[in-house]
Structure formats: C-alpha cells, structure tokens
C-alpha cells in the first residue's frame, strides 16, 4: 500500500551513510511504463534548493522515468557546486537505468547549507538500483524520513486502477506546499495534459492546508507519476478524486507526526465572504503562537483566537464573531459565550470553528500545538 | 525618571485586588497643565478592546486630562457590557478629578474575554486619586505590569524640558504596535498639531519594530501627554527626537523582558531596494519559529534565515544573499560562507545581518528566541 501498489512501478530504499543514525537514506522510484507521464508542484520559497531547480526543468516536458530521493542533507543554499551535485546525481541514475538524466527527478531533505557527501550518495544509488523491487514502496518511504517517527504511505484503490503515495515531513510544514517530499503514483491510463491540473487541485486542498509551524521549506516537492500499466482509461475528474484522497491521507499523517506536537488542530472557518477570506482567517489562527501554546496547556483561551482573527483583512464584524472549541461555543457575538471550563482539550484532536457571518464560504487549516518538545527538537536539530 | 519627571504631571499606583498576586494593579497619570495636549496610537487589531474604542474617541480632539490604567484584565471581547464598564471607569475618574469623562483615556491589560470586577476597580481608582503625587511615576509603572518581571520607565532630559515614559508588555509583542500600554509625558510647550506626527514617527521606528512573537494585542495603546509646564517652546523636530529616544529606550526594555526569552535578537536587513522591503524581510526572519528555536539552542542555523528570506516578495537574487551572525559571515552569495562553528551565540544579544544587495535601504526588527519558558508561560497563562 505505497508507491508500488499501482502496477508499473518499482522502488527501493537503502542505507548510504548520509544519516549519522545509520537508517535508510536513499530511495529510488522507477516508472517502468508503458507511459511515463508526470507532473509536479514545488515550494514557492524563492530560496529553493538545487534539486528543486533541477526537477522543475525535468518535469517541464511532462516525462519522468525515475525519482531519486535522499534524506540526510537538503542540498539547499549550496550554490553552483550544489547544483552540480544534483546534476551528477541525475546523470548517475540515468546511466544505471539507461534513461535520460533529464527525465530523472531529484529530491533532497535534511540540513540546509551543507554539501552532500557525493561518494556515499552515488554508491547508495548503485545499491538502490540493485534493490529495486515491485514491492519496494514501504522501504522507500522509510528512506526519506528525517525527524518523522513513522513512514507515511497511502493508497486509493479504484475500479481496475489505483493511486499510491509516500510522504516525509514533520517540521517546516507550511504553504505552499505543506510537506517536504511526496511521490504519488498511478497505473491509470491518462491524458498527460490532465496530470498537472489534477495534482494542483489535489494539493491545493490538502498539503496546502497543513500549516504546522508557519515555516516554508526550500525543498518541497510533490511529484505524480502515471505508468498506464493498468490499461484502464481514467478521466480528469476521477483521477483528481483519487489523487486528492491519497494526498489528504498523507497530509493528515503529516499533521499527526509533526515535530513535538501533542495536539492536531483543525481550524475551520465558516460563513466567510470568500474561500480566500476563510483561508486567511484560518491561517492567522493556525499561526498564532499564543493560541498554540494555550492548546498545548489544554487551555481553551478563545480570546487568542479572536485576537488572531482581528489581524486579518477578511470581511467580518467583530461584534458578530462566534467561536467554538470542541463543540462548546465559548464566544458568542464577539463576547463571552459558554463557560470555557466546559471545553475538554485532553484528546489529541482539537476542532476550532470560527463563524464570520459574512457569507457562505468555508475552509479548514490543520495545524499543531506549540510545545516544549517542538522547541527542543528544533533547537537541537542535527539530522 | 518616569512619567512624572517632566513638570506638570502627577501619578500613582495602588493595589485594587484585580490581580490574584496582590500586586499593584491600578495606575493613574494626571496632566495638571497648563496645556492638556495629547496624541495616541492604538493597536491595528480589528478586534480591539473596549478601552481602545473609548480612548480613540477621547484623543480625537487632542485634549487629555488623565490616563487611568489597570492590569489584571484586558476588557477585550466583552461586548457592550464591557464598553459600559470602560465608560463608567472614565466617568468615575472624571468626577474625582473634576474633569470631563471625555478627556480621560482608559487602558486595560490582562486576560481577554472576562469582565472586570468593577467594584474593586472603582474603589482602586478612589485610592489612586488619593495617592496622586509628583513623584508617583515609578509606582504607576509597577501597577501596569502583567507578566513583566521589571517595571519599565525612561526619560530624556533636554535644555529646560524633558520627556518621560513608562511601558508594560512582555508577551503579544508585535506590530503595529509592539507593546501593550505606554504613557509618554513632556513638559515642553508645543503646538498641539505636532504631537500626533511626532508620536507616529517615534513609534514607527521603535515599538513598531519590536516583534517578539508575531502576535498582535487587542489593547495596545501609546499615549503622549504635553503639559507645557516647562515654559520652553519646542519645535516638531526636537520633540520627535526626544520622544523617539524615550520610545526606543522603552522598546529595548520590552525586548529584554519578553516572556521566557533567553536571547534578544536584532535582525538587520541592509542593501534593500526599499525600507518596506527591508522591513518585510526582517519581519519574516523574526517570525520564523525554526530560526528562533535554533537561536535558543545557540545554533547558528543560517539556512533557516535564508528559508525565511525566501518567503518574501522583496527584491533580491537568492544567489547574492549574504548573512552574518554576530559578525561571522556564515552565508556568502547564497551559499556556504565562514564555518558556522565560529559563531558564539552564548550571550543575551544576537545580531543577524542580511544583505540583499538590491539597493541602499535598511531596517532592523528586534525579536526574541523561542524557548521552553515561552511555551510554559503561555500555556499556563492566568494573570
């Protein structure tokens, strides 16, 4: 139930020695066809890692034969030498698989500002090529983990075809994109022109709505590969639905495994004048560090929710705002509602609903609480 | 050396019982004239507390006779009854001092979403009126503290006149404004028309450039009172300089006493195409939780600085960015610079300099690190 669940794909994960932990750190996903259609979305961070710059070009013509991924180093802020490292990585994969280097997507994740140990990486790619297997998806998912505590895979079975996926990402989860690295595969036979819109629609409402800590990565990549190996022709709507289902599953797993988090928080904004307004308000609440600290302390401090809403440009009347936390309406018409002591925040999942009473649009952002463990993990980062 | 350093002012601070700690919690500052000129700036949060709504109106005509301030409750998100409480507070002060209620500024700070215990507050105002004294500034500064660990006062002596000030604020420090409550006094004889521009210019480059935790308060108020009691006529430029000096002093004290902070961080952006660009970049870095956690851990993780810079719309070439931390140039031309191990972050003050190489504008934002103590204080907030 991974990137190798759909037919036409092989994958592998090996230990190349990039991580000091000695865990798997190089993954390879190969599309054996017959189709080699692909689309991808990347971080919107203007400081993008070398592999992102490379992979944008690779994907531009809609064909990808393989994706090589490493943890243990982001290859970001490494200048021209870093880009040459990425280029060399793609050329090495291309020569081993007998495909064009320009059809090899490269993804890296780990510490920013350090060169990759290329000898170890290239040796690892040799081993990963030897290890390619039709059931290699789960070990590939393991090899892209950084501070993740569990490997993340998902799939959606449809009538004679399927979509599979894997993701890594535990910190620096924010728009747009919300995760570091994701590979999604399908064996559907699709018009190559629909892959890009299908992937964009799927990520828009899933990964783009995870905002764990407001920090945007330099390496975010989501790539979708279609092999056509099922022989089943699938239209854009069907494809989008299944890809979105896999992305939603993976996005929820990212939130559940966010660095140091004790709570997963859904901030749902309703009755907004527009979806953009709903998103702006939900994101403002999701990024408010005081609110996130309060949730960590199981404190239903709804005043901090209102203070965050008030920083936005969305249409609303402050005297009309309603807020509920885990179904207790603690704020009514901008003022005091039900007793805050009725709110139970002891569970992992917290649901905050903000009603703007300005229209009928809605949006939900998933975030996490701000905890001692988050501070600890990110002040002692070394992987 | 406080709000009562300039002539023409009396002040007091008393225990009214609003704080469970039993510390002083009601302050009064009275301008005995001969002038009663005033200007103020307030939070730009659209969810503003009742006292902010009230005080905007009070200041509109440029005359203020007294400022009454309470800690132990913000009177925010309290609806129409909360506004009536503020109104009643001003009327009570007005009747005791024999001034118009419409010339009494009201400031409140503390927990959002709870009504003030009005009986205790009004009794406290009686006591504060009895206690008014020409040397009452320091105790007034003490009475507005919430999670502040020290009272904050400042003054600037000029030729025959002076400016004094007090501030409270330890959390929820962000633009615009960066602090909760500030009163600045002067005995200069000034054209009332210059007070507002002088205060706005002074706050623009001081309080507005403190961004401790990115959270904007519902109650921020900075009020400037001019008594004319020195008899010395002062022009706009002189006044602005002295008010800015006091505001800068107070702003630096706010950063130094920010909740749970272990480091004070100056993020200076240079060679920007515009001051707006410099500010946008400096604020993006100052709000990056991963960078702030790294500083807490004395880790010069400059990649997180670049990742934050990359989220902005400022003019720059990612391959031209330079970053130094405490004078060590860890990033050169977007890539690896000097060895990060040369950076010593063990001191309280940290200076990060980002060069955009896109022009000649500059700006500095002061922020703090993100620590276990910040999380703890804000997950257990109850004052």
UniProtKB/TrEMBL annotation, chains A, B:
Keyword hit for Cytoplasm: yes
Active site: 179 (nucleophile)
Domain of life the protein comes from: Bacteria
InterPro entries: Arg_biosynth_ArgJ (IPR002813), ArgJ-like_dom_sf (IPR016117), ArgJ_beta_C (IPR042195)
Keywords annotated in UniProt: Acyltransferase, Amino-acid biosynthesis, Arginine biosynthesis, Autocatalytic cleavage, Cytoplasm, Multifunctional enzyme, Transferase
Cross-referenced Pfam families: ArgJ
EC numbers for this chain: 2.3.1.35, 2.3.1.1
Pathway: Amino-acid biosynthesis; L-arginine biosynthesis; L-ornithine and N-acetyl-L-glutamate from L-glutamate and N(2)-acetyl-L-ornithine (cyclic): step 1/1; Amino-acid biosynthesis; L-arginine biosynthesis; N(2)-acetyl-L-ornithine from L-glutamate: step 1/4
CDD domains noted in UniProt: OAT
Site description Involved in the stabilization of negative charge on the oxyanion by the formation of the oxyanion hole, residues in chain: 109-110
Localization per record: Cytoplasm
Positions bound to substrate: 146, 168, 179, 259, 378, 383
GO MF entries: L-glutamate N-acetyltransferase activity, acting on acetyl-L-ornithine as donor
Group of enzyme by EC: transferase
Principal subcellular localisation of the protein: cytoplasm
Residues of the site described as Cleavage: 178-179
Annotated catalysed reactions: N(2)-acetyl-L-ornithine + L-glutamate = N-acetyl-L-glutamate + L-ornithine; L-glutamate + acetyl-CoA = N-acetyl-L-glutamate + CoA + H(+)
The protein's assembly and partners: Heterotetramer of two alpha and two beta chains.
Function recorded in the entry: Catalyzes two activities which are involved in the cyclic version of arginine biosynthesis: the synthesis of N-acetylglutamate from glutamate and acetyl-CoA as the acetyl donor, and of ornithine by transacetylation between N(2)-acetylornithine and glutamate.
Family stated for the protein in its record: Belongs to the ArgJ family.
PANTHER family found in the cross-reference section: ARGININE BIOSYNTHESIS BIFUNCTIONAL PROTEIN ARGJ (PTHR23100), ARGININE BIOSYNTHESIS BIFUNCTIONAL PROTEIN ARGJ, MITOCHONDRIAL (PTHR23100:SF0)
Name assigned to this protein: Arginine biosynthesis bifunctional protein ArgJ
Native organism: Phycicoccus sonneratiae
């Amino acid at each position: 139930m991974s990137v190798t669940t759909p037919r036409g794909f092989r994958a592998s994960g090996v230990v190349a020695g990039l991580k000091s932990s000695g865990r798997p750190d190089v993954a390879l996903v190969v599309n054996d066809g017959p189709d080699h259609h692909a689309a991808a979305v990347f971080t919107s961070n203007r400081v993008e890692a070398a592999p992102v710059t490379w992979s944008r070009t690779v994907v531009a013509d809609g064909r990808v034969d393989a994706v090589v991924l490493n943890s243990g180093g982001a290859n970001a802020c490494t200048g021209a030498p870093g880009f040459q490292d990425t280029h060399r990585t793609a050329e090495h994969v291309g020569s081993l698989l007998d495909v064009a280097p320009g059809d090899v997507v490269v993804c890296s994740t780990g510490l920013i500002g350090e060169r990759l140990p290329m000898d170890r990486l290239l040796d690892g790619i040799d081993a990963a090529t030897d290890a390619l297997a039709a059931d290699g998806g789960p070990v590939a998912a393991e090899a892209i983990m950084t501070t993740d505590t569990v490997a993340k895979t998902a799939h959606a079975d449809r009538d004679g075809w399927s979509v599979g996926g894997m993701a890594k990402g535990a910190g620096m989860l924010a728009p747009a994109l919300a995760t570091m690295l994701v590979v999604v595969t399908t064996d559907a036979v699709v018009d190559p022109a629909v892959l890009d819109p299908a992937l964009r629609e799927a990520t828009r409402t899933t990964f783009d709505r995870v905002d764990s800590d407001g920090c945007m990565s330099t390496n975010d990549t989501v790539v979708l590969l279609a092999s056509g190996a099922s022989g089943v022709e699938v239209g854009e709507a069907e494809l989008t639905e299944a890809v979105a289902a896999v992305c939603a599953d993976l996005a929820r797993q990212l939130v559940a495994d966010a660095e140091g988090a004790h709570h997963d928080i859904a901030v749902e904004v309703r009755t907004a004048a527009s979806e953009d307004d709903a998103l702006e308000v939900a994101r403002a609440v999701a990024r408010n560090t005081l609110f996130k600290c309060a949730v960590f302390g199981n404190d239903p401090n709804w005043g901090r929710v209102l203070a965050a809403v008030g920083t936005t440009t969305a249409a609303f009347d402050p005297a009309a705002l309603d807020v509920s936390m885990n179904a207790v309406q603690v704020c009514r018409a901008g003022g005091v509602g039900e007793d805050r002591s009725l709110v139970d925040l002891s569970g992992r999942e917290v649901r905050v609903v903000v009603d703007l009473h300005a229209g009928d649009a809605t949006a939900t952002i998933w975030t996490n609480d701000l905890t001692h463990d988050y501070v600890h993990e990110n002040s002692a980062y070394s992987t």
